[in-house]
Amino acid sequence: MLLEIEGLCAGYGSGGDILRGVDLSLAEGDFVCLIGPNGAGKSTLLRAISGILRPRRGTIRFDGTDVAGLRPDLLFRRGIAHVPQGRSTFPQMTVHENLLMGAYSIRDRGLARERLEVAAAFFPIVVEQANRRAGLLSGGEQKQVEMARAIVTSPRLMLLDEPTLGLEPRASRTVMAKMRELNEHGVTILLVEQNARTGLGTARTGCVMELGTIKLRGEGQRLLDDPQVKRLYLGESAAV
Amino acid sequence: MNPQLLGQSIVLGILTGGVYALMASGLTLIFGVMRVVNVAHAAMIVMSAYLSWMLYRTLGLDPLLSIIVLMPVFFVLGALGQWVVLRRLGGRDLTLTVLVSFGFAIILEGLQGSLWSSSFQAINTAYSLDSFNILGIYVPLVRLLAAGAALALLGALFVVLSRTNLGRAIRATTQDPRSAALVGVNVEYVTTLAFGLGVAMAAAGGPLLGMLFAFYPATHWLWIGKLLAVVVLGGLGSLKGTFVAAMILGLAEQVATVTISLDWAPLVFYLFLFGVLIVRPRGLFGTVARESL
Ligand SMILES: Nc1ncnc2c1ncn2[C@@H]1O[C@H](COP(=O)(O)OP(=O)(O)OP(=O)(O)O)[C@@H](O)[C@H]1O
Ligand SMILES: [Mg+2]
After folding, report:
1. What is the pLDDT of residue A237?
2. Minimum Cα–Cα distance from B175: chain A residue
3. Residue pLDDT, tens place only, A176-233
4. Cβ contact A150–B176 (<8 Å)
5. Which candidate, A166, B58, B86, B109, has a CA 20 to 30 Å from the CA of A151?
6. C-beta A86 within 6 A of ligand 1
């Protein structure tokens, strides 16, 4: 198992637990989509995995070692890349500089150049728009810049938090296709997706999160056919 | 209005503005990464002026050369202070951090008073009174030297911030610390270095201040007011904005002095500042803080 989470509890400040004993594991090469209602704790789970939020209890084993509580920059260097919900480009920097930040932790210059080229091949937009300020790009373009920046170090695990939120359908499809492509290249992906139909259709495995725990796990297509999931999530997402 | 006098005041305004820009640059840099106004910034500049004055009196070291000595010393002390004290206040309690820097300003002022008395000082070198004439415009040599040194240092700072890995990491941390951490930046470490760099810029401003203006321990209150106005006008945290705003302040002061009167000089700038803030609350080059989703 690449990622093994057991009994994970976490919350904000002095507030109560938002994650209440999450158990979740991902094997190398998995593509897991996490769905669930607003406020279920999906973003919180990703934050705990990437180290932005310090877990209170439980273990997070990454590649065999317990990494719970490590700083986010160290976890990134170990191979966990997190593209958070909303926008996370450096808006005043150019697209090229944003990409360079993805190579910040690579000491070997030759290797950095090589890796930057690979990332640029995946996301041609970073070359096309290289000298524009990232903050001026459209939401879909910025999301691609964020993803390009996140893959420069060739991470083993990618956490993507609602990457298609607020994007128009075409940009949305591009982002989903890029994720599939990355997964085919061996990157393990944990995706949070508001649109359950798209998410479960794209990913191999689906998980349903409710009130801070994983309620259900199954093959993506099978979850789509599950009457309970259909009633709770597909009806809702069709209305959205 | 005498055109020669106007030309003269414009030249002087630009030269002084360059020095103001250098003095304010550290304040901007520190605000950028920490979102805290370092109230002690001007007290640090005055401290550096005193040390430069001492180095000149005791060792005969030229104030411009003392910059080379003072910058690394201030960098190390600043970085240490940030790491040992400010970091522990934990970025969350900004009010506390401002209070600590306020307290530190008072400590520095008291220290200067007890070491060097509270009377006026100035760094007077052999060339302090030299000047020359270009096309009928009178330029004091020290103004030109100070502005030249200020622009060279600002240029160097600009290169560091735009061309080096550390510089980019400082800018990334300024724009979005969480995203910086998520690409492998040790945000605490980078903040400490940026703070040290800001304090080193204050060190560079000291000798220039001492060459151009008289100073005494309490002068830092006057200066912090001026520098804060510059930083706010420029748009908090924007180095480019700080530079432009400092030039405007320098020009406004000098031009108002010759066209209206000396007493009006500061007022003209503050009126301009209020005018800009009414039209553009985020300052000339500021950006609206992005709501986090
Ligand atoms: N920074 C924060 N500080 C305090 N509470 C927070 C913070 N972020 C989220 N929460 C709370 O934690 C709970 C779970 O939030 P989280 O963002 O993880 O939900 P989510 O499943 O990602 O929802 P959504 O689908 O809306 O993105 C919510 O009740 C929310 O109010
Ligand atoms: Mg969320």
Report:
1. 45
2. A90
3. 999 999 999 999 999 999 888 888 888 889 999 999 999 988 887 888 888 777 777 7
4. no
5. A166
6. no
Instruction: Give mean pLDDT, residues A79-90.
Output: 96
Other beta carbons within 10 angstroms of residue A195's beta carbon come to: 21
Q: What are phi and psi of A59, to 5 degrees?
A: -125, 150
Query: What residues contact B232, with CB distance under 8 A and at least 6 apart?
Result: B273, B277, B283
Cα-to-centroid distance, A86 and ligand 1 (Å): 13
Judged on CB neighbours under 10 Å (0-12, 13-18, 19+), B10 is middle
pLDDT at A126 (0 to 100): 94
DSSP secondary structure letters along chain B: --HHHHHHHHHHHHHHHHHHHHHHHHHHHHHHHH----TTHHHHHHHHHHHHHHHHHHH---HHHHHHHHHHHHHHHHHHHHHHTGGGGTTT-HHHHHHHHHHHHHHHHHHHHHHH-SS-B----TTTT-EEEETTEEEEHHHHHHHHHHHHHHHHHHHHHHHSHHHHHHHHHHH-HHHHHTTT--HHHHHHHHHHHHHHHHHHHHHHHHHHS-B-TTHHHHHHHHHHHHHHHH-TT-HHHHHHHHHHHHHHHHHHHHHT-GGGHHHHHHHHHHHHHHH-TT-SS--PPPPP-
Closest-CA distance, B24 to chain A, in angstroms, reads 21
Q: In chain B, which residues have their Cβ closer than 8 Å to the Cβ of A112?
A: none
Q: Distance (Å) from the C-alpha of residue A226 to the closest C-alpha of chain B?
A: 31
- Sign for the CA dihedral angle at B212, B216, B217, B219 comes to negative
**Would you write out chain B's pLDDT as a tens digit for each of its 293 residues?**
688 888 889 999 999 999 999 999 999 999 999 888 899 999 999 999 999 999 999 999 999 999 999 999 999 999 999 999 888 886 557 788 889 999 999 999 999 999 998 889 999 998 889 988 888 888 999 999 999 999 999 999 999 999 999 999 999 999 999 999 999 999 999 999 999 999 999 999 999 999 999 999 999 999 999 999 999 999 888 899 999 999 999 999 888 888 887 777 778 888 888 888 888 888 888 764 433 32
Q: Which residue of A has its CA nearest to B166?
A: A104
The set of residues, in sequence order, having a beta carbon less than 8 Å from that of B259 and lying 6+ positions away, is B1, B6, B9
Q: Would the CB atoms of A90 and B186 count as touching at under 8 Å?
A: no
Q: What is the ipTM of this complex?
A: 0.93
Which of A19, A20, A42, A44 is the best mutation target for the ligand 1 pocket, counting ligand atoms within 8 Å of the beta carbon and taking the most?
A: A44
**A-B interface: how many C-beta pairs under 8 angstroms?**
78
Across the interface, of A50, A87, A100, the residue whose CB is closest to B182 is A50
DSSP A89: S
Which atom of ligand 1 has the smallest separation from the CA of A45? 18
